[in-house]
Amino acid sequence: MKSFINALVSVILAVTFFFGFWVILDHDYDWAAIAPYSGNLFSGWLVTVGISLAALALSVVVAAVLTVAQLSSHRVPRVLSRAYVEIVRGTPLLTQILIGYYLIADAIGWDSRFGVGLVILSCFSGAYLSEIFRGGIESISKSQWLSARAIGLSEGQTYRFVVIPQAIRRVLPASAGQFANLIKDSSLLFVISVHEFTMQAREANANSFATFEAYLPLVMGYFILTFPISLLSRHLEKRFSYEH
Amino acid sequence: MSIEVHNLHQHYGETRAIDGVCMKLPDSAQVLALIGPSGGGKSTFLRLIGGIETPTSGTVIVDDQELPKEEEGLLDYRKSNGFLFQAFNLFPHLSALDNIILPLTEVHGWSRHKAEERAHEVVKRFYLEKHLEKHPEQLSGGQQQRVALARAVAHEPALLLLDEPTSALDPEMKAGVLDLIKELCDAGQRIVLSTHEMGFARQSADHVVFLAEGKILEEGKAEELFEASREPKVTQFLDRVMKW
Predict the structure, then answer these.
(1) Chain B residue at shortest CA distance from A164
(2) In this predicted model, what pLDDT tens digit does every residue of A187-206 receive, in sequence order?
(3) Which of A179, B19, B24, B177 has the fewest Cβ atoms within 10 angstroms?
């Protein structure tokens, strides 16, 4: 109930803010100019939702592989995965998209913009997610390992029955936050002409010259995706803090 | 119960937690108590006997079998034992019942049905029926320790190892847990425990080992060691701790 009230207050504040903005700007809105592009905007929004969901699933796989490599007792996978994470986190996503599409995908002859965009986004987000996963696994106390060892669980069983179930609860809030980032980051895919939401808004603007009318739905479209995730993330964080 | 220890060492860096211990337990002994000052090596010695740690050097022989040095063999040995720590070490994401069932199904290969039946028997014996579905954080310290004890004995271990089982409990809870351990002793369970409860050690143990600075200062039958210790340091320690 309390979180519902909080959500309601946030929505009212947001609406007031936008309305105030609207009044201050005193812009002469011409929604008719943008109307012919509303279908494109909506399909762009759907592409953003689709690519974000697909990248979420794929980035979990990427992150799982990286996490296993980083926790490995062998040096080579540890060093390689560490290097990967540092490089991905240390360079802008925009450059990764450009290099990924124009150099790497081109070299291997892959020209599906959606596919390449999806893979780049997943590789990018997977690096961040793997840091969250690793932190979650390493946060499980030594006493849990000791206890698992004492009752006769093998290392694999300890991960499966003791460490991972506890780590998942701990990483959920941060992972939800990372998903919100992923949705926003997908907007950069317009540089390789993936027909996602931002790309469609840019095209609508270019063709209609109705800048506000093209970009205001863009802001709202992203916000209605990320805001519930942000609420969910906060809710999960609170639930976790009660447990400990 | 036969336990033999030959020239046992366990070093952590510069610290010699166990420093050249030799011991041969009389076959008639059923309950062995490890006593002595904190940091004297009791817990480490217990973990070495229980196969939770592997020694730096030396051998431990339990029931005429030398404990293996490699993890696989040790895992089999640990499966046959039960272990209880001072800090409960239950799995916080599982209910009391599932904490007891997990090793039965996953380590000992019992069916879920058989494991549940057995778990219900044990919790009844330990007065935990009302708390089956609760998670550890919903239980008091004494209740948590009883669940941990139930988990340690549910598979009828060949050897039950108790590491200061009541150190973290208030006096009333302590008494409740000690009553249960006494019941297990009386029922013929073979037990090795490290404890600060001198009264309990004296009453329940057949054989007592006094450890300080990683060495055995004195060992012998409980009544002899408590009544007429030959070692001045042991007498001094016992006088001090049993004064109040």
Answers:
(1) B93
(2) 999 999 888 999 999 988 88
(3) B24
